[in-house]
Amino acid sequence: MKFLILLFFIHSPLIGHENMDLIDSEVVQERMISMQKLNKLMSLANKKIKKSQLDDETVDIFSKIEHIFIDYPSLFPDDSFQGVTKASTDIIDNRDVFNALANEHAINAGLAIESVKAEDIDQLKIYFNKLYSSCKSCHSRFRN
Ligand code: HEC
Fold first, then answer.
1. In terms of residue numbers, what domain contains 60?
2. How far is 61 from 83, CA to CA, in rounded Å?
3. Is 113 part of any domain?
4. Residue to substitute in 40, 74, 143 for testing ligand 1 pocket (most ligand atoms within 8 angstroms of CB)
5. d(C-alpha 31, C-alpha 25), whole Å
6. Which percentage of the chain shows pLDDT scores above 90?
7. Going by CA atoms, what residue is nearest to atom 27 of ligand 1?
8. Is residue 28 in a domain?
9. Domains of the chain: total
10. Any ligand 1 atom below 6 A from CB of 109
11. Which among 102, 111, 104, 130 has a CA at the least distance from the CA of 62?
12. 127, exposed or middle or buried, with CB in 10 Å at 0-12, 13-18, 19+?
C-alpha cells in the first residue's frame, strides 16, 4: 500500500502531461491497429487467391482493405508524431503525396473487388500485387 501511495506521488506531477500524450496516442493506436488489420486481411486475401476462391468473402476482404485506406489519412493529425509512432514527419510536409498513396491503395482495392466479381483471377492477381508493392513504397518514404 505504501508503495502504491509513493508511486502515485512520483507520477502525479506528470499527470497533466500524460493525459495529453494519451489523447495523441489514441489516434496513433488506432492507425497501428488498422495496419495490423490490413496485414491480416492481405494474408487472408492471399489464401483466397491461392485457392482461386473468388466469392463474397473475398469481396468483403477487399472492401475492408479499401475502407482502411479511405480513413487512413485522417489518422495523422499534425500533433501525432511524437512517442511510439514510427510515422515520419515527412507526412506533414507532403500530405498530397501521402494522401495520393493511400488513395491509390483504395482504388486498387476497388479494382480487386471488380476483378473478384468478374471472376477474373489474372486481373485480381495484378491488383493484389499492386496493393503489395504500395505497402513498400509508402513505408520506405513515410515510415521511420
Ligand atoms: C499510405 C501509406 C501506407 C501504405 C500504402 C501502407 N502503409 Fe503500413 N504504415 C504506414 C505508416 C505511416 C505506418 C507507421 C504508423 C505509425 O507508427 O504511427 C505504417 C505501419 C504499418 C505496420 C506496423 C503497425 C504497428 O503495429 O506499428 C504494419 C504491419 C503495416 N504498416 C502494414 C502494411 C501493409 C501490409 C500494407 C500494404 C498492404 C501497408 N502497410 C501499406 C503507411 C502506409
1. 40-78+85-144
2. 32
3. yes
4. 143
5. 10
6. 78
7. 32
8. no
9. 1
10. no
11. 111
12. buried
What are the distances in angstroms from CA 62 to CA 45, 47, 50, 97, 116?
Answer: 7, 13, 15, 23, 9
CA 124 / ligand 1 centre spacing (Å):
22
CATH at 53: 1.20.120.10
Read off the pLDDT of residues 95-126 as tens digits, 9 standing for 90 and up: 999 999 999 999 999 999 999 999 999 999 99
- The amino acid that residue 114 corresponds to is E
pLDDT tens string 74-86: 999 999 998 889 9
Q: Three-class SS of residue 81?
A: coil
* Count of beta carbons in the 10 Å neighbourhood of residue 102: 21
Which ligand 1 atom is nearest residue 91's CA?
Answer: 12
How do residues 43-60 score in pLDDT, each as one tens digit?
999 999 999 999 999 999
pTM to 2 decimal places: 0.86
